[in-house]
Amino acid sequence: MRNLQGRLDLCSINTATLGHREPLSRTIDRIARAGFGGIAPWRREVDEADVVQIARQIKALDLTVTGYCRSTYLPATTSAEFAANVEANRAALRDAATLGARCFVMVVGGLPEGSRDLTSARNQVTEGIAMLLETARDCGVPLALEPLHPVYAADRAVLNTIAQALEICERVDNDRSGMIGVAVDVYHCWWDPALTASIEAAGRAERLLAYHVCDWLRETRDVLLDRGMMGDGVIDLPAVRQTIERAGYDGLIEVEIFSAQDWWRRDPEEVLAICAERLQSVC
Amino acid sequence: MRNLQGRLDLCSINTATLGHREPLSRTIDRIARAGFGGIAPWRREVDEADVVQIARQIKALDLTVTGYCRSTYLPATTSAEFAANVEANRAALRDAATLGARCFVMVVGGLPEGSRDLTSARNQVTEGIAMLLETARDCGVPLALEPLHPVYAADRAVLNTIAQALEICERVDNDRSGMIGVAVDVYHCWWDPALTASIEAAGRAERLLAYHVCDWLRETRDVLLDRGMMGDGVIDLPAVRQTIERAGYDGLIEVEIFSAQDWWRRDPEEVLAICAERLQSVC
């Protein structure tokens, strides 16, 4: 396992960690100044600015874009809506290419409003991903399927385990083009009895595209916006990193913390300093 | 699939559905009077009363005890604590036998306070279950392992999928004694991509011991105490029941709803009437 001491160049900050309180250009500067090697910006921030200018700034600061967050949800009630969702993702993929992103993070979406048909939603996801794979190839930006915790199955993602993500990858890309894989986020998959086996399988298929860390608080007050700082929760972070690095992952370690009541209320400089310290001590 | 119209004798009420607001004997009367064929009481209610008298009342009203809720959590920090947890479950199993329960519902417990060792907690669970199996045989009450939604992995149950439960069953009972199996609760496993396959596997192994229904609300406000009434959420209840009955389940359909802000505030008679109506119309 890589030693992260003094290696913030191996670490990345997902801008959600700072709560999207400042313009992206300012956030980029903060992250670079704190010594991190990477950044993962969000579309809404980029859309509020100028993507070319943002790309130029990131490049000038020598930051790796570890991922571009995130896809428009795919499952839809009508085929027109579904087509529009795919199209919105195509546009985002082109921006991801402009940014030089290592991957486009796909949070696939939950059940369409009013639907109870999980199978159909999952089929739409596979279909949409297959359609986007071509664009990903054209843009040179791989699709990183991010399984979300099962608690979000209704409203955010019907993709809930790494095994399920790998099954989609094999179905749409059995020649292993390198243009589709998984984003492993400890928050979403730490509980999975198949975690080690699934990460190993993803490694063998060369599909490990991103690795996100934070922590699961034992007393979670809000499953969406109460993620913990690494070290404050129950996840055995070194064990998971050892597993993913042994399986071949050699990309950056990205911090992504949604925390409306705690970290998003703190000074961004303090948050970055604590991220840096925890990355080097407990991850 | 069985037709539940006019067949409340095939339906059971878990007393948690009424919010534990009244003495158990009153709850038993209400459930019998409403026409349900079964009841699943909780230990704390039974412990507040006299188990022999409760058993007599339930028998006189011809109610099936579809499950006795629930086990003392197994994982512990010290071996003395672990042994005490096992012993507490042995005592509960004897009460389950007195009640004539069809099964003893095992919610296995989360990580011990301060622990990040999921593997060790899971090993303790398997070990504890193996120890309890003997008592279950002596008492004639099967252990129903209930996988809980992964959102409870830290604090309530490190057993999170039916597949994982079946693996434990095979490990501790490969001669298939009939004294251990799974309790399938739609709230906990509706999201599982392996749901159908796992239920079928459980059926083939004759390990389907209980079936619990409620609903998953799209906008869940509290993952512990905001379960929905059947029909109010996103779970395709007829599809799940068809799967489990095709797999050989012929026991009762048990309603278990934790709902601090809604159903637990309503009149118990109203709750039972709506349960009856929904069981016959949307389950």
UniProtKB/TrEMBL annotation, chains A, B:
Domain Xylose isomerase-like TIM barrel as annotated: residue spans: 28-269
> InterPro entries, alphabetically?
IolE/XylAMocC-like (IPR050312), Xyl_isomerase-like_sf (IPR036237), Xyl_isomerase-like_TIM-brl (IPR013022)
- Keyword check for Methyltransferase: no
Q: Do the record's keywords include Isomerase?
A: yes
The lineage's top-level taxon is Bacteria
- Residue ranges the record marks as coiled coil: none
Q: A Gene Ontology MF term for this entry? A: isomerase activity
Supply the Gene3D superfamilies for this chain. Divalent-metal-dependent TIM barrel enzymes
Q: Which UniProt keywords apply?
A: Isomerase
Any one Pfam family here would be AP_endonuc_2
Q: Which residues form the signal peptide?
A: none
Which PANTHER family does this entry report, sorted A to Z?
HYDROXYPYRUVATE ISOMERASE (PTHR12110), XYLOSE ISOMERASE (PTHR12110:SF52)
Q: What is this protein called?
A: Sugar phosphate isomerase/epimerase
